[in-house]
Amino acid sequence: MPSNKDDGGWKEFLWNSERGELLGRTGGSWFKIAVFYVIFYGLLAGVFIGTIQAMLMTLSEYKPTWQDRVAPPGLSHTPRSDKAEVFFSVRESETYLPYVKALRDFMKQYDDNIQNNNMLFEDCGEQPADYKHRGDLESDMGGVKACRFPRSLLGSCSGLEDNDFGFKDGKPCLIVKLNRIVNFRPRPPGNNDSIPEEAKPKVLANVIPLHCTNKREEDADKIGEIKYYGIGEGFPLQYYPYYGKRHQPQYLQPLVALQFTNLTRNTELRIECKVFGENIYYNEKDRYQGRFDIKIQVNS
């Protein structure tokens, strides 16, 4: 057993009442240590807060600061699946109802009653036109109007005449859009050199053309006719640029509807769609950058 002397030793180390020492130090020493660490960590906190504030001052409220590092634009479609497949049977409604529901849900935001506020929306015409400049993006100008896009422009794929978007008849529709990028102005093709021969008639003024074709050579005669619905069968410039959620929370981008009217039945078909423009690029590692491909199979 430890002696009383030993007991007194560690007890005195913890607190020596005669000298007024705690853990071998006087109260004055502990006070100095406390003051040092308060000042030290206070300075660290000040540097951290100052750095964050300086960084926030470089950020814009209206557009992403590092937007130039984004490779524009993405091309996406509805309905969409994880494997980019649309497989269904015309005789089994449960196989295509999920696709139809996705289209119905998506098209609700383009209903006329959503776009009837003249303070938020304006008519921009049903023919391709030039960009709509609505002011300086960086200014605190408040909300700005956006162009209406009536879903009736999508014809047989609008869901107004055919609530099943062609799936019931084996003539499925896809709704295609360019993803939103703040202040992005897509530029139409400057020449036809990089455009496939069959897509050259689609090159018009003030429109970004969209063209779809077979991905594999063996499918060339199996795709059949593809109908395009929308303004100029592409993406018209008057809907650009997009001013961001602060200025245009109501913005709806233009759409193009595709309807595959005569697909070969009971066969997996791979289809590729591309948009063409001077500042539109492709990346084989990103299947939705300026393009997408999809597998479609309609079973009898």
TrEMBL record:
User: According to its record, how does it sit in the membrane?
Assistant: Single-pass type II membrane protein
The source's domain of life comes to Eukaryota
According to the record, the segments passing through the membrane are: 34-59
Single GO biological process annotation from the record: sodium ion export across plasma membrane
Q: What subcellular compartments does it reside in?
A: Cell membrane; Membrane
Q: What does the entry list under GO cellular component?
A: sodium:potassium-exchanging ATPase complex
**Molecular-function annotations in GO:** ATPase activator activity
Q: How does it assemble?
A: The sodium/potassium-transporting ATPase is composed of a catalytic alpha subunit, an auxiliary non-catalytic beta subunit and an additional regulatory subunit.
Q: Describe its function.
A: This is the non-catalytic component of the active enzyme, which catalyzes the hydrolysis of ATP coupled with the exchange of Na(+) and K(+) ions across the plasma membrane. The beta subunit regulates, through assembly of alpha/beta heterodimers, the number of sodium pumps transported to the plasma membrane.
**Entry's PANTHER family?**
SODIUM/POTASSIUM-DEPENDENT ATPASE BETA SUBUNIT (PTHR11523), SODIUM_POTASSIUM-TRANSPORTING ATPASE SUBUNIT BETA-1 (PTHR11523:SF10)
Family, as annotated:
Belongs to the X(+)/potassium ATPases subunit beta family.
Its recorded name reads Sodium/potassium-transporting ATPase subunit beta
Q: Which organism is it from?
A: Poecilia formosa
